[in-house]
Amino acid sequence: MKKHGGNVMAGLLADYGVTAVFGVPGGQILPLYYGILDEGNRIRHILMKDEIDATFAADAYARISGGIGVCDATAGCGAIKFISGLAEAYNTSIPVIAIGSEMEGDWLAARYRGTGSQVVDSKEVLKPVTKWQACLPHVNKMPELVQTAAQMAVSGRPGPVFIECPWRPFREEYTGPDYESNRKLASLPAHRPTPSRDEIDEAIQVLKEAKRPVMLLGGGAWRSGARAEITALAERMAMPAAASLTGKGVLPENHPLSLGVVGSLGGNDVSRKMVEEADVILAIGFKFSQNSTYGWTIPRKGQKEIRIDIDETEMNKLHTTDVGLVGDAKATLQLLLDRLDAQRDPTAVEKEIAKLYRAWRKKTGRRWRLTIVLLRRGSSPY
């Protein structure tokens, strides 16, 4: 069977484990739709009401599936609506491939102020919210383009990428060489780098000397799949863990060492007290954002910080990191566990946490009862 550019793209996405594409159709993006249709049950298209919705749906798909989310839009006015969804994926390191069609690639003069219908420089518009952007130069470059996009989306610190497909090469017959897909190229995480042995030993020494250590868990801990290692380290070192909203649940919230969410959005008194009184903070895939640190007041003066992150630019950002471990969270934590011979009894810490939770629930219960009374009287508690 003859293949056009849309067939090649759809087939490769299916080979990389993508089972759904979210988007809104338009004339110039139809080759992708025909390609998805020809793939049968391997991949399907889900119609969205708006291109903005498509990006958020692709983001959610990536978070839940652990793979790559994909969204599509037609030329110009469709693709530039990806901005808000891709900005969220970019800031929270979610692998998304955004596909936008384009008018004829040789419409150079027609790009100026919309002389050509639906002509917008989508790549430049989306550049600030994507890791990588590329335009399909020829249909026979489609395998290389899709593979590179997938690798870019999952490599290092994951994030969204943008593929622009001009109408002519997108619909042309593929006449290039045979190609093979390798699903491992689109796996997440793509690689599991680890710090040096000396850096691991330095972190272990800080943990051994800690009196009240606490873990801070972010989205990077989730995407690394480090749940088992985090639970094991928490139990071995009697180290409670608080999480940002994107790290929520990495340590199960019914675990006696779980402090729940920390921060001004969704945080609680228990997590704030334990984090602020800690002498050592072990931050795992946690970017110290404004909301999760109460306006960058964490870490506090005198607290030591060990930081595990796959992105080296996170080290010493906004404040000094005492021990920076650049690497994959799961693999790095396993190295810590392998070399950490210390062990503490968590009983006392668990009792402290339980006591703080009882006091917090009692206080919040009184607050809600007062709110209900005031609302019934027609007053506002705020």
Topology of helices and strands:
Blueprint lengths: L4 H11 L4 E4 L6 H9 L5 E4 L3 H15 L3 E5 L9 H9 L4 E7 L19 H5 L5 E4 L6 H13 L5 E7 H5 L25 H13 L3 E5 L1 H6 L2 H11 L3 E3 L14 E4 L7 H8 L3 E5 L19 E6 L13 E4 L2 H11 L7 H30 L6
Parallel strand pairs: 1-2, 1-3, 3-4, 4-6, 5-6, 7-8, 7-10, 8-9, 10-11, 11-12
Overall description:
- It is a single chain.
- The protein is of the alpha/beta class and 382 residues long.
- The chain is 38% helix and 15% strand.
- The protein has 13 helices and twelve strands.
- It has helices spanning 5-15, 30-38, 51-65, 83-91, 122-126, 142-154, 167-171, 197-209, 219-224, 227-237, 269-276, 329-339, 347-376; strands at 20-23, 44-47, 69-73, 96-102, 132-135, 160-166, 213-217, 241-243, 258-261, 280-284, 304-309, 323-326.
- The strands form two sheets. A six-stranded parallel β-sheet has the order 2-1-3-4-6-5, with helices on both faces. A six-stranded parallel β-sheet has the order 9-8-7-10-11-12, with helices on both faces.
- Helix 4 links the parallel strand 3 (69-73) and strand 4.
- Helix 3 (51-65) runs parallel beside helix 4 (83-91).
- The model has no long low-confidence stretch (mean pLDDT 89).
